[in-house]
C-alpha cells in the first residue's frame, strides 16, 4: 500500500512529509502530494526502524510462567544449567522465538540478529525453529541467524560438523564463544572458526567474555587472523569485556587495530561487567552496535524487546548525559547496528526500506530516556502497529 505520512520530524528536524511506495521511502519533504493513504503524524518524532544486533530468540521464556532462577555464578554454571533445563522442559524454540520476534516488531524493531544454540545435545532443533520464525516474519522483519556453539566448539566433539550443517541450512553468520576460557585453546578454536567462515563465505560474530589481559590476547589473535585472511569488515566481537578492564594504553592500541581492520563491537551495556567504553570506541573509529542479549531466559530474568530501552541502558552504563552523547547510544540501536550487521537500505532517505517509527518526544535524547509508547510502526511499507 502506498502511504503519505504527514507532519513528522525526522530525528527531531523540521516537519516534513514522507511518501512510501512499494515498501520504500519514495520522497521526504514539505508539502508532498501523491495518491496514497494519508496518515497524520501531528508533529511526532520520526525514527528509523530500530535494530537489535545481539539477542537469543531461541532461549526466551517470554510469555511463559515465571522461571525460578537458582543457577550458580560462573559462565560454565549457566551453560550447564541451561542444557539441563532445555533437555527436561521440552522448550519450543520455534514458538518462543516467533513470540518474541513479534514483540520486537511491535516496539519498532525491524532488523534483528539472533544467536541460536547449536550443540551436540540440542543438535539443530533450535536452528530449525528460528529458521521457521525468520520465514514467518519475512517481509516486515529482517532476521539474521547466527549459528552459535553455546557449549563450546572444541570441548564437545561433533559441534564443528553441526555448525557447518547450520551454515548449509541457511544460517547467515557463524558464531564463536570464548576460544580460550571455554575451549581452552584459542589458536585451535579460532583456526577452525575462521576456516569454516571462509569456506562458506560467512561473517563471524564471536562472544568474548574473557576478561583483562586474557581477553586482550584472544582479541589480538582474532585481529591477527582477520588481517591475515582478508576478513576486514566481516568480524564482530560481542561483549568484548576486556576492552573495559585493560589499561588505557593497551585498550588504545587494540582500538587502533580494530578500526583499521573494521572489526566491530556489539555491546549490551551490562551492569555486571566492565564494558567497552562507547565514546572511546567511536572516537577511535570502531563501530559499536547494541543488543539485549538474552531476554527472560534461564540466564537472566531481565530484559524487554524494546531497543529504546536498551539504548537507555547503554547510555546509563557509559554515563552519557549530554544530548549529543545520548545520540551515540541511539546510533548503536539504529544506523551503527545496521552497518555492523550488514542490513542494507537502512535509514530515513529516499530509496531506503520504509521502516518508520513515530513517538511523542522532542528529540532523540528524550526518546531514549523516556522510551515513549510507539505511536506508529511501519515495516517495509506496512503498518504493523
Descriptive account of the structure:
- The chain is built from 13 helices and 15 strands.
- Strands 5-6-7-8-9-10-11-12 form an 8-stranded parallel sheet, sandwiched between helices. Strands 3-2-1-4-13-14-15 form a 7-stranded mixed sheet, with no helix packed on it.
- The protein is α/β, with parallel strands linked by helices.
- The model has no long low-confidence stretch (mean pLDDT 97).
- Helices cover 37% and strands 22% of the residues.
- The protein has 2 domains: 3-48 and 347-383, Urease, subunit C, domain 1, CATH 2.30.40.10; 50-341, TIM Barrel (Alpha-Beta Barrel), CATH 3.20.20.
- It starts with a strand and ends with a strand.
- It is globular.
- It has helices at residues 75-89, 93-106, 125-136, 159-169, 186-200, 212-228, 242-245, 248-261, 278-284, 307-317, 323-332, 335-341, 364-370, and strands at 3-10, 16-21, 24-29, 37-48, 50-55, 109-117, 142-148, 173-177, 204-207, 235-238, 264-267, 288-290, 356-359, 376-379, 382-383.
